[in-house]
Amino acid sequence: MEPRVPAGAWDDAVAVRAARELDPAGIGRLVAVSAHPDDETLGAAGLLRRVTAAGGRVELVLATDGEAALPEVGSMDRAALARTRIGELHAALAELGVDAEVHRLGLPDSRLSDPASSGSGPSGSDGGEQALVAALTPLLAGADAWVSPWRADPHPDHAAIGRACIAAAPVTAHGFGFPVWARTRISPDDPAVPWDRAFGLALGPDDRTAKRCAIAAHASQTSVPAGGDRPVLSAATLDHFHGDREVYFREPPRDGAPTAVFAELYSDGADPWEVRTSWYERRKRDVLLASLPRTDYRVGAEPGCGLGALTRDLVGRCGRLVATDATAAAIHATTAAVEADSKVEVARADIDDERALPEGIDLAVLSEVLYYLPEERVDAVLERVARALVPGGDLVLVHWRGWPAEAPTDGAAVHRRVLGDDRFDTLVEHVDEDFLLHVVRRR
C-alpha cells in the first residue's frame, strides 16, 4: 500500500509535539521486540545504535521470521524467504554497529493475534497473544527498557506485539511503542496519537546514514520479488523512515506500582533513591519547607513517608504529624528517623487509607507518590484529601519531573489534575529542571 501521509509529516510533528527527549544513555539493557525482521530497523534503529554506543546491551526478540511478506505471490518459497530475512536482519544490525543477541520465537507471520497460532489458547482473538505473553515474559525480565511496534500501529501483528509486551513486561522496565505503518497510514494530527506520552529521539548525520544502510540491507523487502509486481517497502514508503527523528510512545504499567516493588527496594536497609544524602533530595526538602505558607500547622499528614527524611523535617512545623507508608521497612526506618518523638504517629497504611489522611488535618504532604497510582486511585486519594483537610488547610505536592518506570503517568500530569480541581486554590508554584512543587489550599 502506498503512503497516505506525506513523508516528513511525522518528523515535523515529533519536533513540535514530543515534549520529552529519550535518553539512551540511561538504558543498561534494552530488549527490542519485533513482529518481523525489519520492524526494529524501520522504527528504532537510532535507539538501538545509541544505546550500544552508550555502553548498553541490546537484545532483539523476533516473533516471526517474516515468511508471509507479499502473500499474493503464490510462487514464493516461504521457508527460503524466512532464511533470507534472518540473514538480512543480521546484516542490518552490523550496519548499525549493534551486536545484539537475537531470540527467535518462530511464530507464524501475520497470525500473531490468531488463536490458532498459540496451539493451545482458548477460543477468541487473544489466544495467540497469550502465547506471545508467555514467551515474552522471561525474555523481558530484568530489562531496563523495552521497545516494540506501537499497539495502535495499523498492522495486526504489530498491534499484537505491542499489547503483549505491555502484559509481559515487569513494572520496573520502561516501555515504549514505536510507529511503523502508522507513519505512512495515520496522520500525526489524528486525535488517537498519544502525543502526551511521546518521547523524541533526534538522529545525527551518522545515525541517519547507518539507518539508511541498515534499511537497505533488507533487500528482499525493498525489491520486487520474482513473480510479483511491487516491493513490500516502496521508495515512497522508505522516505518516511529516512528522516532525522524517531518517536516512542511511553507504555506505562496500567495498574501502577505494587507495594511489593517498594518493599524489595527498601529491603536490607537500602536507600534506593539516596534520600538521606543526595543534593536533589536535600534541596527538594529545603524548597518544600520554605514553600509552606504558615509557620506552624496543627495536624499534618505525610502518606508515603518512605525512609522518614522529610518526616524528620516536618516535625518542627507541626503540632502533631501522622506519617504512614505501606511497607514495613519504611515504617521501621521512619520510626528510627524521628527517634520516638511524641508529636509523630508512625503507622503502616496505604495512601488512600483513612489512617493515612485522617479528617481534621490542616496540612497534607504528598511527595513523589501520586504518579505511582493508577488514575482511579489518584481520584480516590484526592477525594480523601479534600475530606480530610479543614477549610483553609494546605496540600503540598512535589514530584520529580522524570517518569519512573513503575508510574502510570508523570508528575506534570498529576499536578495538572490537582490544579484543575475547583476545591483547591493555588498558592505556590515552583518549577525547575528537577522537580515540580505546588501548594494548594482547601476552599
Protein model, in words:
35% of the residues lie in helices and 21% in strands. About 2% of the residues have low confidence. The chain contains 15 helices and 15 strands. The chain has 443 residues and is α/β, with parallel strands linked by helices. It folds into two domains: 242 residues, Rossmann fold; 184 residues, 3-Layer(aba) Sandwich (Rossmann fold). The strands form two sheets. It has an eight-stranded mixed β-sheet with strand order 1-7-8-6-5-2-3-4, with helices on both faces. Strands 11-10-9-12-13-15-14 form a seven-stranded mixed β-sheet, with helices on both faces. The N and C termini lie far apart (58 Å).
By CATH, the topology of the largest domain is Rossmann fold
CATH class of the largest domain: Alpha Beta
Dominant shape: elongated
- CATH architecture annotation name of the largest domain: 3-Layer(aba) Sandwich
Estimated radius of gyration: 25 Å
Quick gist of this model?
The chain is an alpha/beta fold. The chain is about 35% helix and about 20% strand.
List keywords for this structure.
7-stranded mixed β-sheet; Rossmann fold; 8-stranded mixed β-sheet; alpha/beta; 35% helix; 443 residues; 21% strand; 15 helices; 2 domains
Helix and strand topology:
Layout: H1 9-17, E1 20-21, E2 29-34, H2 39-53, E3 57-62, H3 78-96, E4 101-104, H4 127-140, E5 145-149, H5 156-168, E6 174-178, H6 182-185, E7 198-202, H7 205-216, H8 219-222, H9 235-238, E8 245-250, H10 259-265, H11 279-291, E9 297-303, H12 309-314, E10 318-325, H13 328-338, E11 344-348, E12 361-367, H14 375-388, E13 389-400, H15 411-419, E14 424-431, E15 435-442
Parallel strand pairs: 1-7, 2-3, 2-5, 3-4, 5-6, 9-10, 9-12, 10-11, 12-13
Antiparallel strand pairs: 6-8, 7-8, 13-15, 14-15
